[in-house]
Design brief:
The protein is mainly α and 116 residues long. It is rod-shaped, with a radius of gyration of 26 Å. The N and C termini lie far apart (87 Å).
Length: 116
C-alpha cells in the first residue's frame, strides 16, 4: 500500500508562512526554512516590543512633565509628590500632553499642587 501523506495541508501551511514573509529581503521571503525562522523571530520581537513600547512612552511622558515642571521651578519628583499630596489624580500621559500643548493649564495644575 502506498504511503499516504497529507500534502495539501503541509503545502498550505508553508504557503501561509511564505505569504506572511512577503516583502522580506533575499531568501527570507522564498526559502521555506529561512522564511519560517525569520517569521518566528519577528513574532518574538513583536511580543517583546509591545512591552518595550509601554516603557518607552512612559519615559517620554516623564521627560515632558519634567521639562514643564522645571519651567515652574520644580523637579519631576517634587511635582509628582505635590500632586499626590494635593490629591490631584491625573495620569502621566494627560499631564505630559498638557505640559506640551496647554502650558497654561499645566501651570494652573502646578500652582494648585504647590498651594496644597
Amino acid at each position: 500500500m502506498p504511503r499516504s501523506v497529507n500534502h495539501v495541508a503541509s503545502r498550505a501551511r508553508r504557503k501561509k508562512i511564505l505569504a506572511l514573509t512577503k516583502g522580506y529581503f533575499g531568501s527570507r521571503k522564498n526559502v521555506w526554512t529561512v522564511a519560517k525562522n525569520t517569521w518566528e523571530k519577528g513574532q518574538q520581537y513583536a511580543y517583546r516590543d509591545r512591552k518595550v513600547k509601554k516603557r518607552a512612552f512612559r519615559a517620554l511622558w516623564i521627560q515632558r512633565i519634567n521639562a514643564g515642571a522645571r519651567l515652574e521651578g520644580l523637579s519631576y519628583s517634587r511635582l509628582m509628590g505635590a500632586l499626590h499630596k494635593a490629591g490631584i489624580e491625573i495620569n502621566r500621559k494627560t499631564l505630559a500632553d498638557l505640559a506640551m500643548n496647554e502650558p497654561l493649564a499645566f501651570k494652573a495644575i502646578v500652582q494648585q499642587a504647590k498651594n496644597a
